[in-house]
Amino acid sequence: MNSRTSMLTASKASADPTTVQTSPKPAAVRRARLRDFGWAMGFLAPQLTGLIVFVVGPMAFAFYLSFTNWDGFNTLSMAGLDNYRFVFTDPQLAASARNTLWLTALQVPGLLVSGLIVAYFLQKAGRMTSFYRLLFFAPQVTSSVAVAAIWLYLFNPQISPINSALRSVGITAPDWLQNPHTVILSLVVVGIWQGLGYQVVIFMAGLSNVPRTLLEAASIDGANEWQKFWRVTIPMLSPTILFLSITSIIASFQVFDIVYVMFDTNATSSARTIVYEIVQIAFQQNSFGQASALAVSLFVSLLLLTGLQLLAQRRWVYYAE
Amino acid sequence: MSTTTSHPTRRTAIRWTQLQLHLILLVTSVLMAIPFLWMLFASFKPLDEIFRYPPSLLPEHWTTRNYDTGFAQVDFVRAFANSVTVALSVTVISLLTCAMAAYAFARIRFAGRGILFTAFLCTMMVPPQLTIIPLYIIMGRIGLLDTLWALILPSGLFNAFGVFLLRQYVKGIPLELEEAAAIDGAGRIRTFVTIVLPLLRTPLVALGIFLFLGQWNSFFYPLIFLNSTSNFTLPLVVNQFKGALTSDWGALMAGVTIAAVPMLLVFLLAQRKIVEGIALSGSKS
Questions:
Q1: Cα gap A40→A52, rounded to integer Å
Q2: What is the model's pLDDT at position A1?
Q3: Residue-wise burial string across A112-140, b where 16 or more C-beta atoms lie within 10 A, e elsewhere
Q4: Residue A102: is it exposed, middle or buried by C-beta count within 10 angstroms (0-12/13-18/19+)?
Q5: Is the distance from CB of B130 to CB of A275 less than 8 angstroms?
Q6: Is A106:A184 a contact under the CB 8 Å cutoff?
């Protein structure tokens, strides 16, 4: 055992050129470094091209466009900060931003809580887990367009079984997608139905990493199920909760497919989300400058929000080790 | 465990909670399935049954008329072929190029490696809405707008998550294996093809299914980049179908069923791998 570890450290040391070569031969080393650089660039070439042509370049271009007036065909003119002024003063964009925030505020906690509960129960169930997981996960592999079409049908007041069920107990259900008070709630229901499976799978992966010894130690100390869940499982799961809250918030801010399929290009004011606005402004009104300013603003908000969450994690996220 | 079996009262208590547990899970999971069942059965109902009150889940008179209408309206076969072309091309190109980049980041020392890798990771934060307008303009300039290439190239040639995931796995491969190959005279390319790629099989399969699913269900990029109905992928066709037949709910549900069922079948067969692939995406935060 001992000789083996020493062999491993020896081989590691020899792989590191700085520790082995006390008196390097400059020309040979430089040539070797250059050759390695060449190989690295060769292996990286396709993905590096993609990074520059399809991400970094377009990002810079989008940033530039946000200060211009352009419809994509006629000559481009500089707009200064006009597009940003439009983004922060337009009343419809303010309404769309509010819709997006409401959607996120309802959907993300809904997803996290229901995902955690289902994952916890699934973990306990042992048997039939894959059957349940199949049902929970199936909406996740269905395209958003199909999901939206199904719910368009289920929310239609004339044929909705939901409304029929409510009617049979004497409640007049609203026209879910047309009523400004219920449209966001309806989108949240669809979002949770579609996204729950992902949350469950990630939470189950997190739960499987909770050390059994800790839970057993808590049992011996006389902790009940609830105390074990609250005092052991939740802290051990906190990195998973952080990961899911960051990714879910980003996803909720970018909701588009469902809204677009349900309302096409003429969504009512109360149903519009920010990304829906970006697409409408860019590709219906051909106002690339304004749409770019809105996209840049969305990106910066997401960066700030994610940064805040990463800062706040020190207060509540627990890392083993 | 041996102590619980000797206490009969405690054992029945455990069995009772297990029963409750399964009852809760069964009810909630079946609730999850109801929208699908409603879609499936509505696609076999005549229109007057869809509008009937009170509603019933199962059709009284089964009909395939909705499917006839669906296939008469829209070229599902063509859309299916387009979806397969895009999803398969992106998956194959992306897996190969991501593995290459992952190998370079994990195994070759070069100036700027740290900065470049950080740049890759940072791009995971960029929302697609920020780059879609420039991409639309670029694709127009190079003449790829309204072709499947506009969907294949950006996704195939760039995937920061794939690079990151595979790099972790390459790092886990024992260095001794590659050193032995180097002593036998294998160069970088041979080492990559004969040693690294075969050892990456498991993460490649998981990532591949993940990529395929993502492309198959993608709506945003096809919606912006494609114009001709002959180039439409399945999600676009369903959307177009919805626009044409908003009042013919039976036909619409038939169209949605046609689009949804293949992926549900794939999921049924590859459930374990898909779940592994998804779980990978969360555990590496």
A1: 16
A2: 36
A3: bebbbebbbbbeebeeeeeebbbbbbbbb
A4: middle
A5: no
A6: yes
Number of H helices, E strands in chain B: 16, 0
A-chain residues within 8 Å CB-CB of B25?
Answer: 118, 121-122, 125, 128, 132
Of the candidates B109, B111, B110, B215, which has an alpha carbon nearest to the alpha carbon of residue B162?
A: B215
- In angstroms, rounded to a whole number, what is the distance separating the alpha carbons of residues B117 and A285? 38
Q: Phi/psi of residue A175, each to 5°?
A: -80, 90
Put simply, the answer to whether B279 touches A49 (Cβ < 8 Å) is no
The confidence band for A294, taking pLDDT boundaries of 50, 70 and 90, is very high
Q: How many CB atoms lie within 10 A of CB A175?
A: 15
Q: Which residues of B touch A36 (CB under 8 A)?
A: 108-110
Chain length of chain B: 285
Q: Which of B16, B183, B205, B242 is nearest to B99 (CA)?
A: B205
CA distance B204 to A144: 25
Bridge partner list, A78: A68
- Mean pLDDT, rounded, for A39-49: 96
Integer Cα distance of B250 and B41 in angstroms: 9
The answer to whether the Cβ–Cβ distance between B25 and A125 falls below 8 Å is yes
